[in-house]
Amino acid sequence: MVDDQPDFLEPIAFWLKTKGYKVRLAYSGKEALERIEEELPHVVSLDIQMPEMDGIETLQHIREKHPDLPVIMVTGVHDGDVFLKAKDLKISGYFPKQGSLQELEKILEPFLRSYEKNLS
Amino acid sequence: MSLVIIFNLVWLRSAWAEGFGTKLDSLTELILIFAGIVGAIAAVALAGFTRKNKPAAAYQSKKIPPVKNISKKISPGDPVLDIVSRINTLSGSKKDRKETFERISNFLNKRIEKEVSSVKQDLTEQYGKIIEEKKLAAAEALEKYKKTFAEKQQTEGVIHSLAEGLMVVNNKGEVMLMNPAAEKLLGVSQKEKMGQPLLDGAKDEQLFSFVKGGADQEDKEIELTSKEDTKKILRSSSAVIEDENGNTVGMVSVLSDITKQKELDQLKSDFVAKVSHELRNPIGVIKQSLSVILSKAAGEVSQQQERFLSNAQRSLDRLSLLIDNLLDLSKLEAKKTDLKTEILSIENIITEVCENMNIWAVNKGIKLKKSIQPNLPKIPIDANKIIQVINNIIGNALKFTLKNGTIIVEARLLKETKRVEVSIADNGPGIPNKDLAKIFDKFQQSSGRSAAEIKGTGLGLAIAKEIVTLHKGKIRAENAEGQGAKFIFTLPLT
Questions:
Q1: What is this structure's pTM?
Q2: Phi, psi of A45 (to 5 degrees)
Q3: I need a labelling partner for B191 at 20 to 30 A (CA). Which of B17, B140, B257, B397 fits?
């Protein structure tokens, strides 16, 4: 999960962990790219608005090495233009910051389930 | 009398000589003397007759002005000569004839003088009257002119000192009037442009857009680039000038510089976007934190704690909705919202909204009915935006309609105006008439409803109005007959 706001990430990460998921946090685009290289996740949630390297730029870097890695875009404000740019970069989902935890789980579940299926 | 005869004879002789250029012979002279005597006798008789018929006092008073010797002014062939000669043939003395002659002459003179003086008086009176009338008319005209001139000066003064640019062009696009503000705004001078087509010598294509299609009375925004390369945004409000037969003879335009206003609008929308974003982020944090606590994933929560946290979460949802609405409205007002129009069936959209809203209606014990005219044509709309409009209006109706109430959504075709009309009527408390006009203003809610009943943001109807206007439609509210409020909006077919 990538976001420059730890306050936002922490409760969600805590809740996902209680649901049995393994969650790794990154607080900038640059840090996210490093974490992905350390251990490839099954799905990435990426905040669009971040200082320095924003979500779109981070996604462009991710796509250079991992064209098929599922990425969910997270945003506080829906901006049509940014969303279209993200769509071009092949995103797997979209989650508004004010959305419910259940909604987030619904978006993430398919990617994690397919991973579980692959395991079995 | 004999003197008169002699006088006559002498006069006749000389008149003869003057008339025929020959002297009278002795026989003729004799005849003349004889004739003179007869004339004298006749004159005496005539004098006696005249004395009898004229008041003696008038004759004796000698007030009659002395007779002018007309005979000297008589030219040959003059009919007077005949009269004179006839008098001379009258009987009586020469003196009597002379007197008769004088009296006739005086009488005639007096009559003539009287006639002349009467005509003169008439003429003087008429002339005086005409002069008086003319003087009055001239004074009135002068007064009118002064008034008109003062009015003209006043109007010119007002036009001259207007902060807004004012320009009048005729139907050929030639400039008829341009005030200093218009000259400054358009960067041209009236002297150069007077009677000239506005576009002559104008490099700015934008000026063309100003004249082009100018007859449509709508406000237009024109972007001009000045010589110093600074951009200027003008708003032009134009109206057609028609003559008494309804023919277009020109156009009057009021120009205002809205550059500053536009900059402020931009600043405002940037500010709202920034603030909204900054507000949304912490809301996201609070919301997710509360959700995690309420999910009990972080440990047990007492019933009391759960109640307070739920209250906090509900208020947060409302705050979140308010910010979303504010952001939507600020985008709509700044005309930053682009419609993604498609030709769609309004019936399908109404059905979809009604199905979604029906869950809420059923919970409140309210009937949500729809009545849609069959075969409504498909129209160009941005589905999400129109859904938002119908959602906001039905949501409003649901908030104010009591249990067992009914909400009816209707749609029909308005053939004459080529529009589709959608109406949403409830049988709630209605809207007080004084609130009807401002019901679409921001943060306006009907005063007839208590604050505790209201859970909206006060922006729903303002957003609906902006969206409908963006679709070139119209929206209005009215109180339904009997009870309840009715919201009606129309959308053009094309």
A1: 0.52
A2: -105, 125
A3: B257
How does pLDDT run across B403-427, given as a tens digit for each residue? 889 999 999 999 888 899 999 999 8
Tokens of B399: 């908030």
- How far apart are the C-alpha atoms of B419 and B399, rounded to whole Å? 29
Mean pLDDT value across residues B186-203:
67
User: Who wins on pLDDT, A38 or B272?
Assistant: A38
B335-372 CB burial, b ≥16 within 10 A, e <16:
eebeeeeeeeebbebbeebbeebeeebeeeebebebeb
For residue A29, give the nearest of A65, A6, A63, A61 by alpha carbon: A61
Q: Beta B248-257 vs B231-242: how paired, if at all?
A: antiparallel
Is residue B287 exposed (0-12), middle (13-18) or buried (19+ Cβ within 10 Å)? Answer: buried
Whether residue B480 contacts residue B430, with contact meaning beta carbons closer than 8 Å, is answered with yes
Q: Which residues of A touch B277 (CB under 8 A)?
A: 49, 76-77
Q: Is B30 on the interface with A (CB under 8 A)?
A: no
CA distance B14 to B143: 69
Write down the H helix ranges in B300-382.
Answer: 303-333, 346-364
Q: Which of B283, B285, B316, B317 to mutate to test the interface with A (most CBs of A within 10 A)?
A: B285
Nearest CA distance, A14 vs chain B (angstrom): 8
Q: How far apart are CA A104 and CA A74, in angstroms?
A: 10
Closest Cα in chain A to B295: A15
Measured CA to CA, the distance from residue B435 to residue B303 in angstroms comes to 43
